[in-house]
């Protein structure tokens, strides 16, 4: 069985980043569940901050730099996406939104997506439902039911490990849901960017149009 390609996108800006930490946990949970289902996975983790200048230039020039173009193609042909953003001003980050603005709006139709968000206060946890889900709904992606928010208390620990366990439980459930959707669908084939056709076939297509 062909391994599934899972693109993991973290829009965290700091080093280290809580968004990256959450993204890594979601990736591990998804891969573990896929393994249990007998499905292999290739996990590709990307820090969007490394592409910030290329994304900005894309808006100005209308063209993606080669490495950004490669990332866009990887995301558009992924079997699933894990997308995690920090929360700024009660919404996802500008970097997070800007990246998905340079994606073809039709390219993610039907693609399974697991959403995650991090913030400095639990007051921002609704960003998953009022900002991130609508964005991916517009892109017609298939968002898994469980989205994961992590606040400051989720990275701490208590004597009984209760809070850490609560986050781990949500992460495990979300990873299991994404893996279930991915396992049910066939692996996506990466289409060639340009396909060379005989002149007669091209002419026939023009005539038919």
Automatic annotation (TrEMBL):
Which EC class is this protein assigned?
A: oxidoreductase
> What PANTHER family does the record point to?
FMN REDUCTASE (NADPH)
UniProt keywords, alphabetically: Flavoprotein, FMN, Oxidoreductase
**Flavoprotein: present as a keyword of the record?**
yes
User: What InterPro entries does this protein map onto?
Assistant: CE1759_FMN_reduct, Flavoprotein-like_sf, FMN_Rdtase-like_dom, NAD(P)H-dep_FMN_reductase
A single Gene Ontology MF term assigned here is: oxidoreductase activity
Q: Which lineage do the record's taxonomy fields give for this organism?
A: Bacteria, Bacillati, Actinomycetota, Actinomycetes, Micrococcales
User: What is this enzyme's EC?
Assistant: 1.5.1.-
NADPH-dependent FMN reductase-like domain segment(s)? 5-155
Q: Which Pfam families match?
A: FMN_red (PF03358)
State the protein's name: FMN reductase
**What species does this protein belong to?**
Arthrobacter horti
Q: Where are the transmembrane segments?
A: none
> Which stretches are annotated as coiled coil?
none
């Amino acid at each position: 069985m062909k391994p599934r390609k899972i693109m993991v996108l973290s829009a965290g800006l700091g080093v280290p980043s809580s968004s990256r930490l959450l993204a890594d946990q979601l990736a591990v949970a998804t891969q573990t569940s896929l393994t249990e289902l007998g499905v292999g996975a290739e996990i590709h983790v990307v820090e969007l901050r490394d592409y910030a200048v290329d994304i900005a230039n894309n808006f100005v020039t209308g063209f993606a730099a080669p490495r950004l173009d490669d990332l866009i193609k990887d995301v558009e042909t992924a079997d699933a996406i894990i997308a995690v953003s920090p929360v700024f001003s009660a919404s996802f980050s500008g970097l997070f939104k800007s990246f998905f603005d340079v994606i073809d709006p039709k390219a993610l139709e039907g693609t399974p997506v697991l959403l995650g968000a991090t913030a400095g206060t639990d007051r921002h946890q609704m960003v998953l439902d009022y900002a991130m889900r609508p964005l991916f709904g517009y892109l017609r992606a298939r968002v898994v039911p469980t989205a994961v928010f992590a606040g400051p208390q989720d990275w701490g620990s208590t004597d009984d490990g209760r809070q850490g366990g609560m986050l781990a439980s949500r992460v495990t459930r979300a990873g299991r849901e994404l893996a279930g959707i991915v396992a049910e669908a066939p692996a996506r084939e990466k289409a060639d960017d340009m396909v060379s056709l005989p002149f007669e076939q091209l002419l026939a297509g023009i005539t038919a149009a």
